[in-house]
Amino acid sequence: MKELIVSIVKPLVDFPEEVQVTTFEEENRVTYQLSVNKNDMGKVIGKQGRVAKAIRTVVYAAGSSQQKKIYLEISE
């Protein structure tokens, strides 16, 4: 799943080397924390959050076969 998130986000940003995904796994959920350069935040979030919503939709669909709930957080 990490590779999927990175492969979606890297082409969108100006600083692809600073894209990092951290995983936090709990009993019934997995949280992926996406970290990008602060100058790239607008590109990852998009107008009215449309790009972020599209990324989350793809990630949630890819993880729907897992038994755990998947969350994607975006931070600087």
TrEMBL record:
The gene is khpA. CDD domains: KH-II_YlqC-like. Keywords: Cell shape, Cell wall biogenesis/degradation, Chaperone, Cytoplasm, RNA-binding. This is RNA-binding protein KhpA. A probable RNA chaperone. Forms a complex with KhpB which binds to cellular RNA and controls its expression. Plays a role in peptidoglycan (PG) homeostasis and cell length regulation. It comes from the Bacteria. InterPro entries: KH_dom-like_a/b (IPR015946), KH_sf_prok-type (IPR009019), KhpA (IPR020627). Belongs to the KhpA RNA-binding protein family. Signal peptide: none annotated. The lineage of its organism: Bacteria, Bacillati, Bacillota, Bacilli, Bacillales. It is found in: Cytoplasm. It holds the Pfam family KH_KhpA-B. Its main location: cytoplasm. Forms a complex with KhpB.
